[in-house]
Amino acid sequence: xxxxxxxxxxxxxxxxxxxxxQKEIGVWEIKDGILITNQATNNKIAQQYWKIVTNTLPNDLxxxxxxxxxxxxxxxEEDLGGINPMNDLNSKWQVDLDIADMDIxxxxxxxxxxxxxxxIHEFGHLLTLNATQVTPTEDEYQEDKKGYLTMEGYAKKKSxxxxxxxxxxxxxxxxxxxxxxxxxxxxxxxxLLYRFYLKRQDSxxxxxxxxxxxxxxxxxxxxxxxxxxxxxxxxxxKKVLFFYQFPELVAQRKFIRxxxxxxxxxxxxxFKSRVDY
Length: 277
Fold this sequence. Notes:
Layout: H1 5-14, E1 23-31, E2 34-36, H2 43-56, H3 59-65, E3 66-73, E4 81-85, E5 93-98, H4 109-129, E6 134-135, E7 154-155, H5 160-168, H6 171-181, H7 186-198, H8 213-226, H9 235-241, H10 247-259, H11 267-270
Parallel strand pairs: 3-5
Antiparallel strand pairs: 1-2, 1-3, 4-5, 6-7
């Protein structure tokens, strides 16, 4: 995933040619939710990290879709991790985690909350972009009658993302965002995206949520899980409330919260964007 918008702007402006090298720790097969230890080294650390994932997140989607688990590092607060489809059918996914940004031995509550946010956010992508939610396509450009086009395909009209876009991304807003997103100049694109966010701070739970509708729903999902149920005074609060209409998501929220050692107080009100997801 990309770096937080403000930091990316700084990096592209002042260090446009510098790349951060990633150190590969290993890649493991996941079968029916079980990590297969078929490597000579780093199996123990992989088991420890995978245990945190499966102890925190609902296992049904992990079992059904996650087929690969990758650990790496590029230093603190670069790429924290991600979740990516491994085939065109969106039926197999890989979870990537940076061991520097997710130090499972840390006792620091802020650090733990930060990587917990990341885990829940990435699970939100799996939740909203898996094979039941998105129809694969070879279309390169969106056809409005088919719905919202993601990198994985068209969001089904009754999918979580399809309904979310229908409610919170009206055509005019989607058009304004799409014009920015198509910019080839990455520096200019990021600058315009940040301006896009600044004009609509009451509409997005974080600045990163303005990156795309996919990031918007994943961030809103994360606050749905971690924050108290808000009063709908703004669009961003309504985005958090969006998930309460789905009993299965309320059940997943309850499950995840039951696995956390502590629940943050007033998370939506007190959150300050720090990192990317």
